[in-house]
Amino acid sequence: MKKNWWKIVAVALVAYTILGGFLFDVPRRAILHESIRNVHFHVCMWFAMLFTMTAALVFGIRYLLKFRTEDDIYASEAMNISILFSALGVITGSVWAKFTWSEWPLLSLKGWWVDDVKLNGSAICMLVFLAYLVLRGAIDEEQKSARIAAVYSIFAYVIMIVLLLILPRLTDSLHPGNGGNPGFSQYDLDSRMRIVFYPAIIGWTLLGVWMMQLRVRIKKLERKTEL
Description:
Helices cover 74% and strands 0% of the residues. The longest helix is centred in the last third of the chain and has 36 residues, at 191-226. It is built from seven helices and no strands. α1 crosses α7, α2 (42-66) packs across α5 and α2 (42-66) runs parallel beside α7. By secondary structure, the protein is mostly helical. It is globular and about 60 Å long. It has one domain.
């Protein structure tokens, strides 16, 4: 029970995020209005993705240094969870763009994607992550596949940093904190949102770690049955 305390915390924080994100009062800002609640989901899921991608990078480098199968398993499953959170981030971002920036009617198929450098960068990142799975599946030799995947994870991490954290700050972007726009913390992430936002980051990240751990255990059991 003592070893699983953080899992209970993860579930509690995610539940708190969902309830607080929808029920707690939020600041009424121009354009954003009620859609600002998506901060607790969209932004925090990207934080979780950054953490799991960092884990994939670290375990990938560890595999290249020691060639331990366990490190490769952790790197692979961390990447799988990163793909999941990046997909959720893109979906929640698309929904937010539709309600915030789109001038098309809600039922229109148009307007679900806005030509924004960070939105486009996130879509490219997801494709780069998916290419990781294609690369692993295209090579039959296990050790060779693990080595190439580990090297590719370093490339994917650098691309992610450039597309999501560097490029949007150098060009015009609709996202707060990029392209000259002030960040949320400077003008609308007040105390009413912070009491949900910060626990949400921890909750979604811990949930990602738990999912990664479960997938690692399943992978190890599969390998044992194959022996």
